[in-house]
Amino acid sequence: MLSEWFMTRYFIKFVYNKSFQFNKLNYRKFSTLSMKMSSVKIGTHNGIFHCDEVLACCMLKILPEYKDAEIVRTRELSILETCDVVVDVGDIYDPKIHRYDHHMKTFSETISTVLKNPNYNSTIKLSSAGLIYCHFGHRIIKQLFPEITEEDTEAVFTKVYDNLITEIDALDNGVSMTVDEPVYRIVTDLSSRVGKLNPPWNSNLNQTTQFTEALNLVREEFLSFVNDCVHIWLPCKVIVEAAIQNRFQVDSSGEIIKLSQACPWKEHFFAIEKHLNLEPIIKFVIFYNNNYMVQAVPVKPGSFVLRKTLPAKWGGLRNEKLVEVSGIKECVFVHVNLFTGGNKTEEGAMQMAREGLKIE
């Protein structure tokens, strides 16, 4: 009974419905990630499994043609030859015959070389997950979210690659995050959690059962990530676009924008700014989040260097003292590093940003 409860607890899938929501349903009702017999076969290696081939299989099984496919785990070439698609084994990379291994000495494919798109310049070598994502990723996203535009599909594709697939590829290919020795280890990432599902050396756990559990774990993670991209990350773009379009109505300088609501704005901001080649460049962003917040814009994505800061004499001050020093009513705080501050009113936040613009 305990084993059955454990299996039921984890063997779930997210299915997409017309309202773009994922519903958790008991795994017994669906065969999407089962290992059942089928006329369509996905081949991968047996033995210890890793996140890349597990994710590759999961992504394939989102597509209609592989939805009910049997997953065949073997290294026997004669058996692999009977499979419709083979991932992470076989010493062949040839998308024309659906062979997606990356272990050959001569293999050096990246997303840049596979897609031949100048917008992608990654040097991370692909694993089987990356190969499947490059060749099927756009279709997978459209299968899950058929109503989003081609432009949004491309945006989600890039977001998922940059923030999920790249990590899986790099870890599987032994690419370090840092040049120097890291000061701590991360052992709770998706690849580590998949690795821990392999039967321990001193257990009698069934390898096929554990592989199926890994499939469901990875599928849940992948679908949740894509869902967040579509429902949380993508809508921010509309908010940032509108703010940029209306910037001269907010302030005649065109260097301050106001978001209609708080959201993760930076990634979309820099992409839109680059696309539109904006002049003058925007220095401050204002939005409401309990107070009216002022945030300074970095010189580039990920940088701590700012285009403009709030006045240095405001740094670390709060409430009455900040009001006294700044001469602006209703001030709440300014961070000691001058990149953000707050005011109880929108007009007060605008005044704070305008004072920041005056700094040479």
From TrEMBL:
<dbReference type="GO" id="GO:0005634">
    <property type="term" value="C:nucleus"/>
</dbReference>
<dbReference type="InterPro" id="IPR003226">
    <property type="entry name" value="MYG1_exonuclease"/>
</dbReference>
<protein>
    <submittedName>
        <fullName>UPF0160 protein MYG1, mitochondrial</fullName>
    </submittedName>
</protein>
<comment type="similarity">
    <text>Belongs to the MYG1 family.</text>
</comment>
<dbReference type="GO" id="GO:0005737">
    <property type="term" value="C:cytoplasm"/>
</dbReference>
<dbReference type="Pfam" id="PF03690">
    <property type="entry name" value="MYG1_exonuc"/>
</dbReference>
